[in-house]
Amino acid sequence: MKISCEQAAEICNKSQYREASLMEIIKLKYHIFICKTCKLFTTKNTKLTKLCNESKLQILSEEEKAKMKAELEKSNN
Amino acid sequence: MIANELQPDKWVELHADYLFNYAIGKVSDVEIAKDLVQETFIAGLNSAKNFKGDAAERTWLIAILKRKVIDHYRKINSKKGKAEVRIQYSDQTDAEGEWLEERVADPFVKGGDQEIENEELGLAIQNCIDKLPKKQSRVFTMKTIQGMSTEDICKELGINPSNLWVMIHRARTSLMGCLNQSWF
Ligand SMILES: [Zn+2]
After folding, report:
1. Which domain of life is it from (chain A) (predicted)?
2. Biggest alpha carbon distance in chain B?
3. Are residues B80 and B16 in the same domain?
4. Looking at this predicted complex, what is its ipTM?
C-alpha cells in the first residue's frame, strides 16, 4: 500500500490524463491522506489541468509552422 | 543587460503559438488567425530596422499583430471592426491616417506590460509553456493541448514512457510555479 512521494507524484500526473489505474489511485489517495506535501501537489496539479482545459489553447501543427518558416525565409531574401 | 535583439529565424519557433492564440482571441477564426500571424512575421521583417530594442521581441510582434487585426476588420468593415478601430486609435494622432508598416517603432508598444497583465488565461499558459525547455514544452503540448496518447508521443519523439512522465512532471511543476501568482 505504501508508496514514495516520487511514485505519488507520477500517479498524480498520470491521473491528470486518466492514465492511472484504480489501484494506483487508491494508493495515491492513501498517500495524500498522510502526506501534506503530496496533498498540496495534487491540489495544484489538478487545478493546472482545470486551467488548461478552460483555456481552449490551440497550437499550430509542425507542418503549419514549417510552412510559415519557409514563407518567412522567402521574404527575407 | 544588452538591448533586445530580433531573431527572425527563431520567430516561428518562439512566438507563433502565442501570436496564433492572441489572434484567435481577436478574430475567432483559425484560418484568418493563421494568416494574420504569417502577415505579422513578414511585416516584422520589413520593419525590423525600426526596432530600437527597448521592448521585448514578443511585445513588439504583438504590436504589429494588433495592427494586422485592425486592418483585417477595416477590410471586412464590420461593426465590431469599427468599434475596435475606434478604441485602438483613440489616443493616437494619426487617427484617420493609413497604417504604414514601416512606422512600427518601439514607442508604439508602450503599455505593453499592462497588456500582459490583462492577458487571458490561454495566453498566460502559452507564455509559461514557451519558457520551458524545448523538449518539455513539446511533450507537454502534445499530451495536454493536443491530447495525444502516451504511446503515440513516445513513438514520434523516440522516447520511452518513463522519460515522458519525467518530462511531464518537470513541465507541470514549472507551469504551476509560473502561473502561481495570478491563477492559483
Ligand atoms: Zn508524499
Report:
1. Bacteria
2. 59
3. yes
4. 0.92
